[in-house]
Every structure is written in structure tokens, then in C-alpha cells.
Amino acid sequence: MNLRQVATLLSSGALLLGCSTTPGANEPVLNNLVVATPQVADSRFQLELAKLNEILANDRDQLNAEAMGQILYRRGSLHDALGLDVLARIDFNHALDYQPRLADAYNYLGIHYTQAGQYDYAYEVLDAALELEPGHPYAHLNRGVAAYYDQRFDLALDDLEIFYQNDPNDPYRAIWRYLVQVEVNPKQAKQALATARLTQQSDAWAWGIADLYVGAMTEQEFLSNYATAALAEDETLAERMCEAYFYLGKAKQLKGEWESAAVYFRLAMATNVHLFLEHRYAGFEMDWSQQQANQQN
């Protein structure tokens, strides 16, 4: 951990310098890259999908509306996990035909509409999810992310502040709040992230991303000491690198190093971890970074 470095930066006022947005003459070479084997489609998901298809083919007439809604929702979530986005959206919409109060289906649709850049639809379905289930664990996150990509940063910050306060020990919540806040007030964003880092009670590896963002760790230190260290028993290297490369890409964007950012987002996409938020938006971020890089050249 780099708590001492974070505390030193916070007390010295160095964090108030904010983030540089001016690229150097030459972006640094990307060293020590770890290219993980892409995640393969989980056989358990495929088997469950086959069973659900069999039930819908043979027993549909015997299922009531509640059962149909649940089966279609579950099939949609499996399609989503396997990267079959169109099939997933069809199932979620059909699930809502049978169970109009299924908050989780609205939440998933909000993610898909955001990925498609259809922000008004995203807000509509995520509002519905929160009306049906005000304590939904991820609807505030997903509505905040939608507003972030829609460049409605004040609205995004409202949702992501709620999401952060629900579990301040989760580093990803602090990181996403930072990514939005830095668009509004870079000085406050960096200070808030450093404070969150110092007050948290978790040893999750992703706090290394916070160390990187506040300047308590270099990019190479992060790659060497955090990105591949201490994988959990249920965690794959592809999952870890999907997250690591996405957030490295965001760090490069904040420095105006668009070419390097595009490389990192491309690496995040190559992991094929379809379930992760970072994979969902890596393609959008890659395209945006490449557009910015092309404008500089």
C-alpha cells in the first residue's frame, strides 16, 4: 500500500495541482504489458442457456406470467454474460412484458442503452428501476455512468456520490466518483479520492488505482506491484487485466496521452470479460481516444 505517500501528498497540498491535460512531445512507451488469455465463454452459462431454451420450447404453455418473466430475465442475463447483446435486450424487454415491475431487467436495459448512446432511454429505464426498488444496488451507478457519458457531470456526480456512500470501502465506487468529479473540479476530485483512500478499511487491490490517480504510485509500479498481484481464488487474470487496463486508459486520457489510452482500452476489450463494466465501455473509450489522437496528429 501507499498510504504514507497519499497522506504526504494530501497534507502537503500537492494534490491541489490537479491533473495535467497537456500531452508531452512524446508519450511514454508502454512497458511491462501483460496480455491475458481472453476469457472463454463459461460452459456453465452455456449449459444453463440450453436448459432454459428447452423449457421455453417444450413447457411454455404451462408457465404463468411470473415464471415466464423470471426465465426470460435469466436467459437475458446469460446472453449478456456471453456478449450476445441483441439477444439479451430482446429477452429483457420480453421479461418486462410478463413482469412489468422487474427492476433488474430495467437496470440491465439501462446499461445497454448507455452502451448504444441512447441516453434518454437509459435514464427512463434506470429511473423505473429506482422507482420500483429505491435501494437497488447498481441502478445509481448505472444512471451515473449514463450521465457521465452523456456529459451531464453534475447529475452523474449526484448518483455516484450516493453509490459511493453506500459502501465507502469499495475502491471502484471512489474511483468512479473521481472520474466524474475530475470533469467538474479536478482539485476537489483528487483530494476527495485521497481522503477516501486514507479512510477506507479494505485491502482490495483496486485501491492501487486510487494511488495511481493521486500520484502516490507510478504507472510502472502499478503494473508491477498491483495489476497481477494476489489474484483471488475466483478471479482470473483476464478479469484483473480488464479492470487494470481500463483504468490505466482513463489515467492516460486525463494526461492527454490519447494514443496510449487507446492501446489500454483495446487491451481491456481483448480480455472478453463481457460482464464487467470496464469491458462494456472500453470500446467507446477506445474510439473516443483514437479520435482525439487523430485530431492531435
Automatic annotation (TrEMBL):
Homodimer. It comes from Pseudidiomarina sediminum. GO terms for cellular component: plasma membrane. PANTHER family: TETRATRICOPEPTIDE REPEAT PROTEIN 6, UDP-N-ACETYLGLUCOSAMINE--PEPTIDE N-ACETYLGLUCOSAMINYLTRANSFERASE SPINDLY-RELATED. The keyword Repeat applies. May be involved in cell division. This is Lipoprotein NlpI. Residues 1-25 form the signal peptide. It is found in: Cell membrane. Keywords: Cell membrane, Lipoprotein, Membrane, Palmitate, Repeat, Signal, TPR repeat. SUPFAM superfamilies: TPR-like. The keyword Lipoprotein applies.
